[in-house]
Amino acid sequence: MDTNAFLVCFCFFLLSPNVFSSSLAMNFCLERCECQPPQRAMCANRGLRTVPQPAAEASNYTLSLNLGGNFITNISALDFTRYNNLIRLNLQYNQVATVHPNAFEKLTRLEELYLGHNLLSALPVGTLQPLKKLTVLYGNNNAIKKITPNLFTHLHNLVKLRLDGNFLEVLQDSVFESLTSLHFLHLEHNKVQHIHRKAFSKLTSLRYLNLAHNKQSGLPTLTFSHLRALTTLLLSENEIQYIGNHVFQNLQKLSKLSLSNNRISQMDSEALKGLLSLRELLIDGNDLAEIPAGLLDPLKRIEELDLSSNRISHIDSLAFSKLKHLKVLKLKNNFLTSLSGGNFALNKVLFDLDLQGNNWTCDCRLNELKRWMAAVQSQGKLLTVFLQCRYPATLRGKYLDYVNSSQLQSLGNLSHLCKSEAGPEESRGGGVVLKMEETGRGDLHGAMKRKRERGVQGDQSGIEMIENSYVLKGKKPKNSKHGTGRRKLKVPSKSDPTADPGLFTNSSVPSGGTFDLLRSDQHEIADPCVFNHHFIYNVSVAHITSSTVTVFWTTRDHHHSVQTPRTSREVHYRVMFDRFGTADRFPRYVYTQGTARSVTLRELSAGVTYMVCVEGVVGGSVCQVAPRDHCAGLVTLSEGINRGAMLTSDLQLVTLATLAGNALLLLVIGGVWLGRFLRKRLRRRKSAVHVRHMYSTRRPFRPAMATASVSADFTTYQSSRPARLSPIEEGDLIEFPCDRFLDSCSVHRGSDMQRFTD
């Protein structure tokens, strides 16, 4: 039997080594440390000044040792001799100033070493040589001034190296030649002024290189030529002034390049050649003066281009023509005065264009840009572009969206740069906008004759401006050749330079000459701003779930298609929805056809606040002013609430049946419990006997001595004699005096006292 028990115990320990190891770890955990899980010693922030030593029998047990946030000043040759199996060692945020060359000699299995945020000025040659399995090395935020190729000898498995936040000035040739498996290299926040041509020659597997916040003034041609696997290169916050040809020639996998906040004033025509996979280029905060044609052509896959905060005053019309995948373009805070819409005509996926902070001159040269912006915004392809006029003084501070094309006049000797044909008028106001034309000097018959020559019937156009007068173009009232029933209004004269003839409304009429105004109910609804303001109302949302919502709106009666002499103006609707209260804005649009007055938005995010606006699309044009008077806000439901809401309508009957069943079950349980309770009460009443009938009170009171003896006999009986094992004796009877229970002694039932047994 003993032999079998021994075999069972032996097999138990063989089959459960974890139980044995856990108990061993708890017994041999380092002093002032925590060991959970058992093989990881957490000794951070313990006020330690030296490396704690494990017991001899547990020297090979610890795999991870965290000594961060202590006051260790130096690492001696004997500090880690008992940590033979250590895999991870953290010494960050100490005060380590010196490390013995043989300090890590026994750590042949070490894979991660963290020495950051200490006071190291150098690492002795040979210190890291025993660490052949090392994959991660942190030496950041120290005072290291120089590194040599011998420092990283035998570190062929190193994947990540951090040396940022030191005082490195020069990177010698082949300084990283042993790091053939290195993927991530951090050298930012140093004082690197010179990089030898072959400094990175062996880093053929490197993917991430950060050289930001250094003091480089130039980029030699062959510096990065061997980094064929590089995907991210950060060179921001340096002193680079010039980028020559073929600097990035072989970086065909590079996805992000940052040259922000340098002093770049010149880039050669082939400076960006070879960047076939580049998706993000940041050149903001430099001194570039122009963007010539062909400079950006090699960037076939570019998606985000930041040219902000430069000195750019001229951009070639074909500068962005080859950037088919460009989505974000930032040109803010430059010296641009004018820009053509043809610059972006070939950028079909561009949705974010930032033009703020330039010296925009709002004249006829911006007409084409204005028309392009209106066209792409009406299709929901572009976010609102904020272009604020600085010149002329009459338009200073106004946004281009709020300026009519008639206000974009030629200035001085720049008239030859403007196109002869004016584009279609656009409205940014809220009233009824009416188009006007100006004709040369002559009589009314001459003006009508010129209109007939252009193929437009005079009886359809109303009265034009003759002899410097402005006249509305609209339909004539029936049975009235000269506009019977019209009311006279004043308009500004042509000689008034401060006059703004762009917007005439029924509620706000400028002063100056006179013209006839047709009744408002006789005008075509050709302006989307007017349509939004007067015809769309009662916008609401319903059927909200975690990913969908239905938007409803109501419109007043109007003609869905208005035929004009030149075009057909059809009225459609689009619904704009965007996240509300977030920094990143990206509105999306849903277009409706025909007479639809509702639309269901899909692919929303759960638990997010959205703003939904409805606006009209009249003749392919939209109003550039946000329709804030017919918007609605909503918050989508969370996932759990959504599922419950979707099942509510289907489970109403089941819920009612369940409630009825539960109520019936409660009644049954209550009845059963009440019956059992009453049954118990009846049993108690039957078994209860009044205390008066249990004890006799006929015998007179005996002396105190006798009473004491009886009590003693009673206690003896209770403690010694077993019950129901012997016949009743005289000592088993108890006598109680009459007055002890305040009972009457007048009743006599016999000469002898009644006696009761147990």
TrEMBL record:
<protein>
    <submittedName>
        <fullName>TLR4 interactor with leucine rich repeats</fullName>
    </submittedName>
</protein>
<feature type="transmembrane region" description="Helical">
    <location>
        <begin position="653"/>
        <end position="675"/>
    </location>
</feature>
<dbReference type="InterPro" id="IPR001611">
    <property type="entry name" value="Leu-rich_rpt"/>
</dbReference>
<feature type="signal peptide">
    <location>
        <begin position="1"/>
        <end position="21"/>
    </location>
</feature>
<keyword id="KW-0472">Membrane</keyword>
<keyword id="KW-0732">Signal</keyword>
<dbReference type="InterPro" id="IPR003961">
    <property type="entry name" value="FN3_dom"/>
</dbReference>
<keyword id="KW-1133">Transmembrane helix</keyword>
<feature type="region of interest" description="Disordered">
    <location>
        <begin position="471"/>
        <end position="507"/>
    </location>
</feature>
<dbReference type="InterPro" id="IPR036116">
    <property type="entry name" value="FN3_sf"/>
</dbReference>
<dbReference type="InterPro" id="IPR013783">
    <property type="entry name" value="Ig-like_fold"/>
</dbReference>
<keyword id="KW-0677">Repeat</keyword>
<keyword id="KW-0812">Transmembrane</keyword>
<dbReference type="InterPro" id="IPR032675">
    <property type="entry name" value="LRR_dom_sf"/>
</dbReference>
<keyword id="KW-0433">Leucine-rich repeat</keyword>
<feature type="compositionally biased region" description="Basic residues">
    <location>
        <begin position="473"/>
        <end position="491"/>
    </location>
</feature>
<dbReference type="InterPro" id="IPR003591">
    <property type="entry name" value="Leu-rich_rpt_typical-subtyp"/>
</dbReference>
<dbReference type="Pfam" id="PF13855">
    <property type="entry name" value="LRR_8"/>
</dbReference>
